[in-house]
Protein: GntR family transcriptional regulator
Organism: Streptomyces californicus
Amino acid sequence: MEQGSAHDGARPAYASGVLPRTSAGARVPAQARGAAAARLPEQARGEHTHGEDPRDEPPAARAVRRHSVRGQILDALRTALVDGELEPGRVYSAPALGARFGVSATPVREAMQRLAVEGAVEVVPNRGFRVSERGPRERAELAQVRALIEVPVMLDLARTVPAHRWSALRPLADATVAAAAVGDLAAYAESDRAFHRALLALSGNGQLVAVAEELHRRAQWPPVSGPATRRADLLADAAEHTALLDALAARDLAVVQALVAEHVTGAGN
């Protein structure tokens, strides 16, 4: 990618000067555009900047606003990753992405650092951030680890959770079906994680839920299927959520085990 601009020939994720909607539908506040923000060390940014003075750091009163902007940019970047608008293998600079979003480069860098921790991007010194590429082997490894966590937990929940408790999760399963029906991959990814998070939360193990969510998020990008097959894949994946709730309520352990094992290796999860 050309320094300070989007990659030549790539379709911009967002029009210049137009703020994206996050997965929650919110827009980055206009009053926060271009605001000065706390500086990250150069080696943590993935690119050099010059002439920055630590004394320019904004007062503490602006911290909440900056955090809000960073959170919304993080949501927008996650949506762009899941949608495939930020292409695997390409390098994007924080200033160029900031220009697309109508904000300064600082909240973009901060959001990208979070995505680097999650394994979605890699820091490229002096250039920016490269969107991670996942080959078949890495995808298979993620699926295997997810299965090692989720299969035994689901079997234990099937044995111990009263049947009527599963009905409370039906709206979450329905939300995945609704997102799948319109082929909205970003909305599906979010609703899919919410469904799995609610299921695993019944274990009462917060650490397990956090680890499983991290693995789930890593497995969601870059997307496996293209637009032509995306809707069919998502519908099949969403149908497994409903079938899993039925099996859990019926305490059908064999079906629960088969569904969870199959589900975590599917293209839509």
Notes: The first strand starts at residue 91 and ends at 92.
